[in-house]
Amino acid sequence: MKILDRYLDHLPWVAAMLLIAGVVHIVSVLLMPAVAPKDAYARALAAVGGAQPARLVALAPMAPGAEILPFEDPAFAEGLCVYDLSKGLLRVSAPADGEDYLAISFHALAGRLYHAITDRAAIKGKIDIVIGDGRQIEALQAATEEAPPQEVRLTAPTKRGFVLVRSFAKRPSDQARARERLNTVSCERFDPPKE
Fold first, then answer.
1. Which domain covers residue 84, as residue numbers?
2. Is 99 a member of any domain?
3. What's the rounded Cα separation, in Å, for the pair 61 and 146?
4. Do 26 and 73 sit in the same domain of this protein?
5. Per residue in 67-85, pLDDT tens?
6. Which residues, at least 6 apart from 189, have a Cβ–Cβ distance to it below 8 Å?
7. How many domains does one find in the chain?
8. Is residue 48 pLDDT above 60, yes or no?
9. Binning pLDDT at 50, 70 and 90, where does residue 26 land?
């Protein structure tokens, strides 16, 4: 038996081991966000420190090594609003002055982004968004069928999630102004109008 024949006898086993290792690697990478103990929602809950749900909480300024969220930028002042739609609809509103950049992103339970908006998309100088699950949004549509909606209505993919608000400071000296801008953002429960 030649050496080449010996290597060819082991080739199917080596190929099978590589295939199994590749499948295990891909599955583990895809499952990691779902089974990680500190997913994005858990970190957001910890960041707001037990504040009441549906209230915007300004995060502490970013410090190296003490980042609460991944990919934080020191040029932004950030705030979080954790919500639970089983308690009702949520309204997020903010004035848009056109002077300072404001970004609002909406994240599902595992942290997956499902909508984002900036102050450049404001209608009549105001950002006004109502979030609910499918049933809540349908009920809101039925209750306000005659009048056109004055707000953007989003259907959240999960009952729980969080809203991340970022206000841009053009210069380090504008950081206080950017933090004050977070105070103009409202994140609160929304009761639909009664017929």
1. 40-190
2. yes
3. 45
4. no
5. 677 677 888 888 899 888 8
6. 54, 87, 88, 89, 90, 91
7. 2
8. yes
9. very high
